Amino acid sequence: VSALLAALPIPDLTQHLPAILFYAFALLAVASAIAAATAPRIVHAAFGLMAAFLGVAGLYGLLGSDFLALTQIIVYVGGILILIVFGVLLTGRAKSALGLERQKGILPAVTAGTVLLLGLLLSLAGTDFHPKTELAEPPPTTADLGRAFLMPEQYLLPFELVSVFLLLALIGAAYLVRRRREPEPAPGAPAPPPAAEGRAP
Amino acid sequence: VTIGLAHYLAVGALLFCAGIVTVLARRNAVGVLIGLELILNAANLNLVAFDRFGPTPLRGTVFAIFVLAVAAAEAAVALAIVLNVFDTRDEIDVDEITSLKG
Question: Which of residues 36-65 of B touch A (CB under 8 A)?
């Protein structure tokens, strides 16, 4: 079998592997982002968003940021996407949750997006970025990143601030969605109809 | 084929424009949030690409991690607001929620 395999004209793709991986992840990210933008149903858009997150995570990995790639999967796919899916679930009774999106707004939106994209790509093509010919090999590791976050002269203060900020935002979100206590019925008033029975506590 | 900075920036531009189209075209407030997440991801991809190809390693990655934390806070608060609006108005169509319009 190995002799047969050796006889087959399989091109050696090893040196092209980074480019192949890049195009695969880029295609995944961009195609799913377009799907997220155009899917008629909001749940399908959420799944497109998930695939786009995974594609971007792969690109982070190719860029040498393995920590950020894993964080992207944990925080975005595991956290933010779950929040969005719960949002879809809890607002499923709304009229706009199903069916096609706004009819009269699609054409201007796509026009604006296309014009913006053309402008960005043109300016990209016209820019010389003077990239370093030699990349930092190997890229900074997760240990370097952790040291940068814990050095007082580097990012320790922003790191602590953002943790407090995140805590405040989560407390605020929980406060916003708390269920208000129903007002006590006035004495002598008829008992309220059991309309709220359908709601889960 | 060498993959350079411009390739990553082009992918970032495509993601950004997909996000802009999503934000502009969706009526559902949750759909607008999906577009916002796409935009933040595009910006993050650009940051990490500049970090890798630029002269100062780690800086872009650190910034991207802060963007990630802020995006998490943004998603939590935005969904809380959407759920609250849905509770009071029974509607999450961003065209219909015009109470604050002067």
Answer: 37-38, 41, 44-45, 48-49, 51-55, 57-58, 61-62, 64-65
